[in-house]
């Protein structure tokens, strides 16, 4: 597997985790205005996932999705953390923490795969910008 495929798989997994988390939180949140903000983030993650997945298919590869254990663990943790507090402030705090981890990991990957195809690096940078924008958007809801 070359760096292009590895980077695309990383993008897919990162966007998949973001997409799945946001979908779950839309179902948990009780604030309609906040849900609109989450819907916007969901569309962006889906778009980035689709772009990376399409590029993988052009390379005759399939996306390596997040393993089931990681998905179930994340799902259970989100349910646990929102059991007693479903407020936009609390959910935003959780999202800021997740996006910050994504920013750190993606920044490292961009350095590791700096020689990847420019189109792939462009998708990765779009994901990085999304994570950074999500942090700023979520800050508006902190109390």
Please give the alpha-carbon distance between the first and last residues: 46 Å
Please give the share of residues in helix: over 70%
Shape: elongated
Number of separate domains: 1
Please mark out the parts with pLDDT under 50 across 5 or more consecutive residues, or reply none: none
**Number of beta-strand segments:** 0
Mean pLDDT score:
94
Give helix and strand order, one letter per element, not per position: HHHHH
The major β-sheet equals:
none
Query: In CATH terms, what is the architecture?
Result: Up-down Bundle
Structural class: mainly alpha
CATH fold-level label: Ferritin
Cα-atom radius of gyration: 15 Å
CATH class: Mainly Alpha
The number of helices is 5
The CATH superfamily turns out to be: Ferritin, core subunit, four-helix bundle
Strand content: under 5%
Topology:
Layout: H1 3-28, H2 32-58, H3 68-81, H4 88-112, H5 118-139
Helix pairs in contact: 1-2, 1-3, 1-4, 1-5, 2-5, 4-5
Task: Please characterize this protein's 3D structure.
This protein has 143 residues and is mostly helical. The chain has one domain: Ferritin (Up-down Bundle), CATH 1.20.1260.10. The chain is 80% helix and 0% strand. It contains five helices and no strands. It has helices at residues 3-28, 32-58, 68-81, 88-112, 118-139. Helix 1 runs parallel beside helix 5 (118-139). The longest helix has 27 residues, at 32-58. It is elongated, with a radius of gyration of 15 Å. 31% of the residues are buried. The model has no long low-confidence stretch (mean pLDDT 94).
